[in-house]
Amino acid sequence: MSVPAEVQLNMPPTDPADTEMTVEEGPRMRKLREVFEAALNTCLNGCSYAKMAQAFPRLARDNPDALRSAREQLVAFIRESIREEFEDINMDKNVVAKLNELDRIIALAQQRQKAEYERGQGRGSKRTDNSSAPAECMHFRVSPAQAIRAYSVYAKRRELSKLHTELAEIQSANHALQSRLTQSRAEVSTLQNTIQSSADKLLPPRGIVDVIEINTAVGGSEMEWT
User: Fold this and answer.
1) Residue 132, H or E segment
2) d(CA 78, CA 47)
3) What is the Cα–Cα distance from 122 to 97, expressed in whole angstroms?
């Protein structure tokens, strides 16, 4: 018994590899690959020979060619491993088909929007946003570098907020330490005054000490004369 064509179109493929070969990547998937490659290159460019030489100064001095070769092999291995992981994720999550479907939905929406605009122009009406053409999707005009920076902004904002919180905590701790230091200085000053006052009470007045010193000196002189 033959299977209707409509059912055949909705049936799942028997071989994922064949499906991957036959499915053509749409603009969003191609843009995703561009962003992925740009991000990968940016990441691996951080592993430069200069930084490797700083990490292994003795090897860089004794055998720089070996260090340079090891660095190239390491970068190539990491690049290939990340690309394989990227492809595995795309296959497991069926990213190509989902992005193609998103492209199709947006294209249909743009066609309807354009048709509505043209019908409105035919009736002599104007768009509410006062623009002269239907809105276009801007994702094709965004470069991979711009996409990476746009994603980095949120991460940097979160990091900046975290740093502001840590700075506020440090400033609060500094204020507490400053208050404790001021209190300790006041206590030390009070203790010094108390010690000085107690010492003044224990020692005789200065006048009596002078008289005792004079009498001692006079008595000593009289003893010499005699």
Assistant:
1) none
2) 11
3) 37
Residue 12 Rama label (left phi>0; alpha psi -120 to 50; beta)? beta
In order of 112, 113, 135, 136, the CA distances from 116 in angstroms are 6, 5, 12, 14
The alpha carbon of residue 128 and the mean position of all alpha carbons in its chain are separated, in whole angstroms, by 41
Residue 9 is given by DSSP the state H
C-alpha of 196 from chain center:
58
What are the tokens at 201? 């009470």
CA distance 88 to 114: 38
CA distance 173 to 166: 11
If the chain, 226 residues long, is cut into consecutive pieces of 10 residues, what is the mean pLDDT of each piece? 40 46 82 92 89 90 92 94 94 92 89 79 52 46 68 81 90 90 90 82 62 59 49
pTM for the model stands at: 0.46
Contact 29, 99 (CB under 8 A): yes
Crossing angle, helix 95-122 and helix 64-93, to 10 degrees? 60
End-to-end CA distance of the chain: 153
